[in-house]
Amino acid sequence: MSERAELRGPVNRRRRTTISGGGAVKQSNGSKCHDAGENPPQYPDDKAKTHDVSDVHASKNWKGDREMEKTGQQLTNSPRKQRSVVEDFNVRLSCHVLQESLLSSASGYSNYRGILNWCVVMLGLSNARLFLENIIKYGILVDPIQVVSLFLKDPYSWPAACLIIGSNVFILAALYTERRLAVGTISQTTGMILHIINLTSMLIFPSATVLTLTSMTPGIYTVLFLKLFSYQDTNRWCRQIRQAKAKRLTRSSSCPSVAHSNGSAVNTHVSYPGNLTHRDMYYFVFAPTLCYQLNFPRSPRIRIRFLMRRLFEMLFFMQLLVGLIQQWMVPTIQNSMKPFQEMDFSRMVERLLKLAVPNHLIWLIFFYWFFHSSMNFVAELLQFGDREFYKDWWNSESVTYFWANWNIPVHKWCLRHFYKPMLRKGVNKFLAQTGVFLMSAFFHEYLVSVPLKMFRPWAFMGMMTQVPLAWFVGRFLNGNYGNAAVWISLIIGQPVAVLMYVHDYYVIHYGNTT
């Protein structure tokens, strides 16, 4: 080993030394340094050092002291670094910071999933207690055969079925009127008069049938009325566009053709008057929408698993609704008649609150059954692409937001065929909104009073009270307070109307017997 290498060795790397039995010191590189015969290595400071185990430890301590000295000099020379070290030291010793409690609105905390789960559990336990109390008091009242027997009893005189079959007359009348208008064989005025007669007859005919015969609600005719109104309105707009362009549009097939090999729909563009076909009309009649357009969005294929899930939900929730009504609603309503007759206010409030829970639960189940399960089933079967049947109405902070988002098909119809045309005619927004609520109140009363064969203004008044309620909530309540007001109106308002109609029906039909 050269003298230069020996001088550089201790500086570049540390060598472990081992004392052998013969007095020799064995280094890590395998060479031996004996007590005599060789010169000890020279260090950079030209001081001789004894090469033993204590020198190794001294070298380590010397290096650590040099690093600490260097750090101390840097801290002394840099006040900013010295302050940062002190602040870091204080942070390590601190356990308190400036912050708000989680339940305070200023904290910005919004993850209340655990509290929501707790509410669901408490709600389930409370309803389970009420349901158990109901069974102990009344026994098992659920009878699925009773509902089926309503449809099997006297099958040769079903007014409801006859009404459904007879609706084809009004459907075809609207289609052939539009065909005559498209080719110009009748004038626009004549076509408008024919449509008015057809639509008015659709409201009068089922009402007269239900009032004279034992039948079900004319709800199907109400839906068909809105559909045919949109049908004639949209085709009238197409004629106006065609006249404005002053050119003939190409005629094409009505509905997208379905490729039976893979089940996918091949969308072909439809233009007026190529849409005036039986296939196009009946596709619109069965489609889960109230607004007509020439080209509906179509899904590429039918998903069998999705279809079967929706079908299972429809059957299950339908039976659940019937069971809850038979077991929970009917006994509660029957026990509510005596307090109403005696005008016992405290008992009336107690009956109202007791009815509010099952009524609201049934309403929520009905919403899911109809707007999610049933409408998605029909949409999947017809490959109807627009599946937005509802929005987040449960987050409504105003009454107007709730009515605009819980029933999207009706909202689109009111917006397209009633609200916007009124605005284009110069009507202000408040009067236009009031007109929408007025029309909705009429149809609510129509769907309730006609089947019950008694005319009471409770449903009409209930809808019209939404106008001042919407103004009050929008003016004075915001955020969570507005959302709570919407929920209270839903939970309390519906059972009030139910009790009013049941009380009047009971008085009219069974008042003399009691």
Give short descriptive properties of this protein.
three-stranded antiparallel sheet, disordered N terminus, two-stranded antiparallel sheet, mainly alpha, 5 strands, 514 residues
Describe this structure in words.
With 514 residues, this protein is an all-alpha fold. The chain contains 18 helices and five strands. β4 (257-258) and β5 form a beta hairpin. The longest helix has 38 residues, at 345-382. Keywords: Acyltransferase, Endoplasmic reticulum, Membrane, Transferase, Transmembrane, Transmembrane helix. It is found in: Endoplasmic reticulum membrane. GO terms for molecular function: diacylglycerol O-acyltransferase activity; retinol O-fatty-acyltransferase activity. It is a multi-pass membrane protein.
